[in-house]
Amino acid sequence: MQVSAQKLALERTYEITGKSKRGYLDEVIYDDASKTTQLSFVTRETTNLTGSKSKVKYQQYFFDKDFNFLKMDEKIDVYQNKRYRGDTYTVDGVSVENNMVGTFVLRKKQIIYTWDWFFGGYRKKIKLLDKVKPKDDAGNKYTLLRKFENDETGDVIALVRAKGKNTNPNEYVFLRIDNNLVFDITDKATFDDPQVIAGAMLIPSISQEDEDDSGLDEEEPGDDAPDGADDQGDLSTSDAGFVFAPGAKGKKGNADAHDYTFWRVNAAGKIIEKVAIKTAASVWNINQMVTTGKSIYIMGPANEGKFYDQVIGAPVLGMAPDLENMKWKLFQLCRVTGGASEYVTVTDLDEFESKLQAPPSQKKTPSYKGKRFHFTAADAYHDGSILICGQNYEWVTKSKVRRKSYRDVVMFYFDNGGKLKGQYGVRREENNKYAKLVPAGQKINTGKSAVYWTIFEMDGIREEREGKYRVTKALIYPSVARIDAATGAIGDFVQFGIVNEKPKYYLHNRMPILPMSEENAIVYLGVDKPGCTLWFGKVILE
Known about the structure:
By secondary structure, the protein is mainly β. It has four helices and 36 strands. It has helices at 18-22, 308-311, 349-354, 433-437, and strands at residues 10-15, 24-31, 36-45, 55-63, 69-78, 88-98, 104-116, 121-132, 141-149, 156-163, 171-177, 183-190, 195-202, 219-221, 240-246, 259-265, 271-278, 283-284, 288-291, 295-303, 330-337, 340-348, 356-357, 373-380, 386-398, 401-414, 420-426, 441-446, 450-466, 469-484, 494-495, 498-499, 502-503, 505-507, 521-528, 533-540. Strand 24 and strand 25 form a beta hairpin.
């Protein structure tokens, strides 16, 4: 069955003033009551007596629901960006790490946040201070296994294990450490057999992908920061997930290599869910967990036959196993709902090939080959089916520098029972050096009877000045395909912002999709290369 390609329901352009062009788009506000969209440009920054840029000059453009221009206001006002908390502020935090002999070490640190006026977000820099080595009540030191920091409070939740002659190696302890290096045990649990950690990561909500994020909240350790001092995610926005696999030593106790365990841990360091998972494949290279709010999906490539740590062992002298060149024959997917494992499925490469589809006009069909796959995004359809987006890549060496080169885009579509419904292989429109340098952005939007898949194609880069900043912008345009939810059939990709077969309007790097409460539409925001003309493109989600 061939699916017709989608098209724009409306397309609008509007030329902004020279002041706005020389300034920068700071914020987009959608008013649900009036169905109007406000684009606020900062055209000039002012300073008060303390040097803080508390007031700025705005040009604010208002558009109706169909993006017809309504009015433009110009004013000087207190800076309104909802993320702004002052030019700089400091949070006292704590850094946790293992030293060279595997002993858990705490250090005080200061997190200095500095507002970036161009991007509308904070950059942060870390300064490390005092050091202590925590011990349990018996005087045993700990070994750090995993950690997650809370950017709001400065606290750290750490999973540790006591080290010593009289300790139980199967006991796992969660510690909460505050910014004064005071720690307390928040939870603990003990397994009957030896375990290894097969996965530990934040569990982002799929809905969080729509939230505005400048991408600047990246830790920048100071020169004195040791290796491994960086975060493993912000626990203030998501729970954390831990998956344990039986260790090979458990064979003596008749442990089953398929008996995995999932823990869900909240920001207070409490285990709020414990779920037994009977896997179909014994070696599971978990690379992602996501939640819809109702269910948690755990996924990754897998193989069958051995215990987890016989294939993916613990790092030796800091060296991780070579997962890059490992051949995976299966892909394993688990859904956890209501504190129980709802299903676990495995899909082999033959089934991936048998379900492989490409857009009708595409001649060659790339596919997932079981290795070197970059996970990009995931989303769930109304019926509980899930779509997983990623990209194949290769390692290349140029001028003695080894780096990833990103290639074809791939998506998996699993039905609400975890069975593969379709695999889609896409040859990108753009394969220039910039497109190969970074993974392509992807986004899934769901309609009443179809799924809409956007690939953000990179045409190149452009350096320009916005306000007093010299910036590099990615020249990106949307390429969108429609997938029938009932049959899984895919239509051709259609590129938007194209005039005379060439890109003319490029997506705004930080706000490529406008925030709208309408559930049946996507609205792309773009601008021409000179930065003079705004472009709005609306796709109806049918």
